[in-house]
C-alpha cells in the first residue's frame, strides 16, 4: 500500500509531532518491537509502518484504523495506545533482508507526519557465539578461583606447622646466647667491684 498521491507532496518527515528511535537492532529469526510516540490531538488518527528510504514513496506494511485494536500484516503488527499516545510495531521472524529504512507515520488531512527509523538485523549465530564466549569466560574464572583456594589453605597450614616453630626456636637461641655471654660472677649474684677490691688490698698489705 502506498500513500495517496494527493498527499505525497504534503508529507512532513521528521516532524516533532511524532518521535521514535533513530535506529534499532534485531536478531535473525526473532522478534523486534519499535515504539513511536505522538503529541496530543493525534489519538484517533491512523498510524502506519512503512518501508523505504524515501518518505514520499515508502510502502505501508501495516496501519491502524484510528482504534486501539491490533492490526496485523505479513510478519508485522501494529497497536495504538491512545492513553499513552504511542503505538508499537512488532516485526516477527526477522530475516537479513528485513534490514532497511522504515517510517512511523500518522495520517493527517493536511500533511502526513513521519519519523525515520533504521532497522538492522544481526545473525543469530554470531549473537549465540558471543553469549557462549561470555559463559565460557565466567566458567574459567570460577574454576581458577576455586583452584586457588586449596593453595591458600595449604599456605596457612605450612605457616602454622613450620614457620611458627622456626621463629620460636630462633628466639630461644638468641636468649641462650645472651645467657652464655654474661659474666660468671654476675650469674652468682656477686658484684664485680667486690672481687677487685679484695685483690688490691691483698697486694698492698705489708707482710
Automatic annotation (TrEMBL):
GO molecular function: identical protein binding; transmembrane signaling receptor activity
Membrane-traversing stretches: 156-177
Alphabetic keyword roster: Disulfide bond, Membrane, Signal, Transmembrane, Transmembrane helix
InterPro entries linked: CD300_family_receptors (IPR050671), Ig-like_dom (IPR007110), Ig-like_dom_sf (IPR036179), Ig-like_fold (IPR013783), Ig_sub (IPR003599), Ig_V-set (IPR013106)
Span of the signal peptide: 1-17
Span of domain Ig-like: 5-120
Subcellular location: Membrane
CDD domains per UniProt: IgV_pIgR_like
One GO cellular component, as annotated: plasma membrane
Primary location group: membrane
PANTHER family: CMRF35-LIKE MOLECULE 7 (PTHR11860:SF103), POLYMERIC-IMMUNOGLOBULIN RECEPTOR (PTHR11860)
Protein name: CD300 molecule like family member b
Amino acid at each position: 500500500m502506498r500513500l495517496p498521491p494527493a498527499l505525497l507532496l504534503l508529507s512532513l518527515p521528521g516532524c516533532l509531532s511524532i518521535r521514535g528511535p533513530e535506529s534499532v537492532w534485531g536478531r535473525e529469526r526473532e522478534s523486534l518491537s519499535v515504539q513511536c510516540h505522538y503529541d496530543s490531538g493525534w489519538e484517533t488518527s491512523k498510524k502506519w509502518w512503512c518501508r523505504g528510504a524515501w518518505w514520499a514513496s515508502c510502502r505501508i506494511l501495516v496501519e491502524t484504523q484510528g482504534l486501539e485494536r491490533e492490526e496485523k500484516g505479513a510478519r508485522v503488527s501494529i497497536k495504538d495506545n491512545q492513553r499513552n499516545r504511542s503505538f508499537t510495531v512488532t516485526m516477527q521472524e526477522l530475516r537479513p533482508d528485513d534490514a532497511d529504512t522504515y517510517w512511523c507515520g500518522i495520517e493527517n488531512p493536511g500533511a502526513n507526519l513521519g519519523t525515520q527509523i533504521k532497522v538492522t538485523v544481526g545473525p543469530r549465530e554470531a549473537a549465540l557465539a558471543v553469549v557462549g564466549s561470555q559463559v565460557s569466560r565466567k566458567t574459567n574464572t570460577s574454576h581458577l578461583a576455586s583452584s586457588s583456594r586449596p593453595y591458600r589453605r595449604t599456605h596457612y597450614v605450612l605457616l602454622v606447622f613450620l614457620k611458627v616453630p622456626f621463629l620460636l626456636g630462633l628466639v630461644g637461641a638468641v636468649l641462650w646466647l645472651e645467657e652464655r655471654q654474661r659474666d660468671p660472677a654476675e650469674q652468682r649474684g656477686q658484684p664485680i667491684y667486690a672481687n677487685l677490691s679484695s685483690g688490691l688490698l691483698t697486694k698492698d698489705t705489708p707482710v
